Each structure stands twice: as C-alpha cells, then as structure tokens.
Predict the 3D structure of the following.
Amino acid sequence: MYTNILVPVSFEAERDVDKSIDVARVLAGEGAQIALLHVVEHIPSYAVSYMSQEYVDEASRAVQAELEQMAEGIENARAVVIEGHSGRSILDWAGKNGVDCIILASHRPGLQDYFLGSTAAQVVRHAGCSVHVLR
C-alpha cells in the first residue's frame, strides 16, 4: 500500500479521472495522502497578448474549484494546480513532495505520440516511484 499518491488530472474527454481516483483509493494505505494535480500548460507568448490576465486568473480558479470538488469525497485528498510542462511538472512535483505512487490515465497513442512522446510515457520513463497507467 502507498502513503503518498499523486493523481494527475487532465480534463480531456478521453481521460477517465474517476477510474484513476478509484484505483488510488484501492492502493492507498491507512492515512494515505492523495493529491489531485492539474498542470496548466504555459501560454505561448504570441497568444498571451490576446488574453486578459483576468481571463487567465478566472480559468485557474475554475480548475482549482473543479479539483477541490473532486477531492471532497476522498479521505486525505487535496487539490493542486501548478503551471508548466505536463510531464516535467508532474515529475518535479512528485519528487519534491515525496510521492510514492503516481496513477495516471492514458489515451490510445496517436501517431504524434510516437514522434513527440506522451505525458504518460515521459512520467513512466523518468519517475522515481511506482507508476500505474490506466487505459
């Protein structure tokens, strides 16, 4: 059983967050901490000038509220929103926070994933802890 579980949350339609949360509950030891983490990708400089800071701030608050709602029914869970590159940020956050298990939902890889690499593949290759990938 794990004591500090990280569940990265993507709001893409093909990702099953509920399944990841269910697996986290099963793998959690008594008193385990579960973090629901969403990484907001950096907005490219050419696009940021078209968005007001208020819009960006409101979007971040909406994501935080959604994660907090997901975490409400989970014992010892918390919602975390950070900014950065998804794969690197998940790995950095896991390392800094003593995570011993990452549970992530994956999608069926497309052609672009073979050339660029998916977030799940990057996390699996470089994580310093157990990683469970769900399809």
